[in-house]
Write a structure and sequence with these properties.
Layout lengths: L22 E9 L5 E9 H7 L5 H28 L1
Antiparallel strand pairs: 1-2
C-alpha cells in the first residue's frame, strides 16, 4: 500500500471464523504445449479445511500443503544427490 501512497489502516484483522461457506481454488493453467491447455490444482471447501486443521481457512491449508510438499521434494532430491556424489 505504501507504493501507492495509501494510508495504512489504524486497525487490521485476519478473517478466520467469519468464513462460514465457500471453497478455495488454487491451481495453475499450463498453456503452450502439445495438450493445448492443462489446469492442475485443487478445490478445498471451508468445512473440509476445518476438519483437516481446525480454526484455519482453506487458503491456509492449501498453502501449507504446498510448502510441505516442496520441502519433501527438496529433501528427496538432496538425498538422491548426496547418494550420487558422496
Amino acid at each position: 500500500m505504501s507504493h501507492y501512497e495509501l494510508p495504512t489502516p489504524d486497525r487490521m484483522r485476519v478473517i478466520k471464523d467469519e468464513i462460514i461457506e465457500g471453497e478455495d481454488i488454487l491451481g495453475c493453467l499450463l498453456m503452450g504445449h502439445d495438450f493445448g491447455a492443462w489446469w492442475i490444482g485443487s478445490l478445498l471447501g471451508i468445512h473440509e479445511a476445518r476438519e483437516i486443521a481446525p480454526g484455519e481457512n482453506a487458503t491456509d491449508v492449501q498453502v501449507a500443503s504446498a510448502v510441505a510438499a516442496g520441502v519433501h521434494w527438496m529433501i528427496k532430491v538432496l538425498s538422491a544427490y548426496l547418494d550420487l556424489c558422496c
